[in-house]
Automatic annotation (TrEMBL):
Keywords: ATP-binding, Nucleotide-binding, Transport. GO terms for cellular component: ATP-binding cassette (ABC) transporter complex, substrate-binding subunit-containing. SMART domains: AAA. It comes from the Bacteria. GO terms for molecular function: ABC-type transporter activity; ATP binding; ATP hydrolysis activity. Gene3D superfamilies: 2.40.50.100, Nucleic acid-binding proteins, P-loop containing nucleotide triphosphate hydrolases. The keyword ATP-binding applies. InterPro entries: AAA+_ATPase, ABC_transporter-like_ATP-bd, ABC_transporter-like_CS, ABC_transpr_MalK/UgpC-like, Mo/tungstate-bd_C_term_dom, NA-bd_OB-fold, P-loop_NTPase. PANTHER family: MALTODEXTRIN IMPORT ATP-BINDING PROTEIN MSMX (PTHR43875), OSMOPROTECTIVE COMPOUNDS UPTAKE ATP-BINDING PROTEIN GGTA (PTHR43875:SF1). This is Sugar ABC transporter ATP-binding protein. Residues 4-235 form the ABC transporter domain. The keyword Iron does not apply.
Length: 438
């Protein structure tokens, strides 16, 4: 089998859309690499560029170390399967599977036995004489897979092949597809926006956002040690708690001011030069553990139970902590600013009026205030979270979600204290990049 690679691959469409932005990535021979990201992040375009169905604006595609930019889709010998499995409705399953062989890419002598062999692999050997219209969605997708592998491709390119199927079938086929690719040892690029698919099927996951590669690694690594705020937020159910805060480094301790509460961390040399920095604290629901009030050792958060989602074996408890969340969709994550610039703007007394000035002032950890400020509780460190004061005088609801095992469930309105597992607490700077704490 062959390795598939891209080297600073870029695709800009004629209307100016940058769909793929300098993506360098490699799937080793026989590897199952999943491209994961939200809709529009460029996954399908990468696949189409690798397949030769789209021409790159710059950069290269390499198959087995050889640049294939000038080879046609046929010459690249990769098999692509799309979500809408496009079988020929008037041909039987056997004819559909055998179609690529009859279309003249291979000698046709062994067609029948090859079709039978592949149908066996995919578990559709009993259906060879049926028409696609008489198959279930899952069976059709298996036939599409069979048709893709019948020519013994050098690689599989699978574009959300399971997304048209219902949840049960998807789970079943997930295991089948990954198992088949591994049995055949075919290098596979698999596109999905479904994190469960990515985590369960991949040898490695490549997370993309707006055409830019965020991180590549084994599923456990990408989940447990995300490089960017986007990756931390995108992976994990329920969504990772993202809290606005600022770091204050003192000789004996490091404090993260969350606006309404303080988190005290052990002193850390790694954080020394982040004093005064605005950060996002990311902490997953299962890194928070309810403890009896007053007994908490180490950092903890307090709140009032606002909602209990009982899932049977456990519950997700929404805790109103008064902490303002970081909105992950905000462009701030793509366009980091230093805060210094804002300080200058405030100092220059902009002529745009008092509301604008106040809004800017709220964005600064230590900006001087001319009004009482927002209705957030304040700490002695004086950190103000960011929110759009033009839209609302109140900060957005800052629920922290905690995973609580059943059956001991709290009730709405009860106070709750949760211990924060410091080893699983993650900090990100204003550009969304990880700040290592050790
Ligand atoms: N032919 C085209 N012309 C202009 N823009 C395009 C074209 N094809 C795709 N795009 C844009 O390029 C970006 C990436 O699209 P792409 O289909 O690769 O995303 P995706 O991650 O596969 O999304 P999805 O999960 O919805 O399929 C999107 O903003 C899309 O609108």
């Amino acid at each position: 089998m062959v390795a598939i690679a891209t080297d600073r691959l870029t695709k800009v469409f004629p209307d100016g859309t940058v769909a793929v932005d300098e993506v360098t990535i490699e799937a080793a021979s026989g590897e199952f690499l999943v491209l994961l990201g939200p809709t529009g992040c460029g996954k399908s375009t990468i696949l189409r560029l690798v397949a030769g169905l789209e021409e790159e604006t710059s950069g290269h595609v390499l198959i087995d170390g050889r640049v294939v930019d000038r080879l046609s889709a046929k010459e690249r010998r990769v098999a692509m399967v799309f979500q809408d499995y496009a079988l020929y409705p008037h041909l039987t399953v056997a004819q559909n599977i055998g179609f690529p062989l009859r279309a003249g890419y291979e000698a046709s002598a062994g067609t029948e036995s090859r079709v039978a062999e592949v149908a066996e692999h995919l578990g559709v050997h009993d259906l060879l004489h049926r028409l696609p219209g008489h198959l279930s969605g899952g069976q059709r997708q298996r036939v599409a897979m069979a048709r893709a592998i019948v020519r013994k491709p050098q690689a599989f390119l699978l574009d959300e092949p399971l997304s048209n199927l219902d949840a049960g079938l998807r789970a079943e086929l997930r295991a089948d597809v990954a198992g088949l690719a591994r049995r055949l040892g075919v290098t596979t690029l698999y596109v999905t926006h479904d994190q469960t698919e990515a985590m369960t099927m991949a040898d490695r996951v490549a997370v993309l956002r707006r055409g830019v590669l965020q991180q590549v690694g084994p599923p456990a690594e990408v989940y447990g040690d995300p490089a960017t705020l986007f990756v931390a937020a995108f992976l994990g159910t329920p969504r990772t708690n993202l809290l606005q805060g600022a770091i204050y480094v003192e000789p004996e301790r490091t404090v993260i001011d969350l606006g309404s509460q303080l988190l005290e961390l052990p002193p850390s040399d790694a954080l020394a030069h982040h004093h005064n920095d605005r950060v996002t604290v990311a902490v997953r629901a299962d890194a928070l553990q309810p403890v009896p009030d007053g007994s908490a050792q180490g950092p903890f958060l307090r709140g009032e139970v606002r909602l209990v989602e009982n899932l049977g074996h456990e519950a997700l408890v929404h805790l109103d902590t008064g902490i303002v969340p970081t909105p992950i969709e905000e462009s701030r994550l793509e366009h980091p600013d230093t805060g210094q610039h804002l300080a200058d703007v405030i100092a220059e007394d902009p002529p745009v009026g008092r509301p604008f000035r106040q809004a800017l002032a709220r964005m600064m950890p230590h900006a001087r205030q001319e009004s009482p400020g927002p209705a957030t509780a304040r700490t002695e460190y004086g950190f103000y979270p960011v929110y759009d004061a033009e839209l609302s005088d109140q900060p957005p609801l800052g629920d922290v979600v905690v995973r609580v095992p059943a059956p001991v469930l709290p009730r709405r309105g009860e106070p709750m204290t949760v211990r924060v597992d410091v080893d699983r607490l993650m900090l990100f700077d204003r550009g969304g990049h990880r700040i290592r704490t050790s």
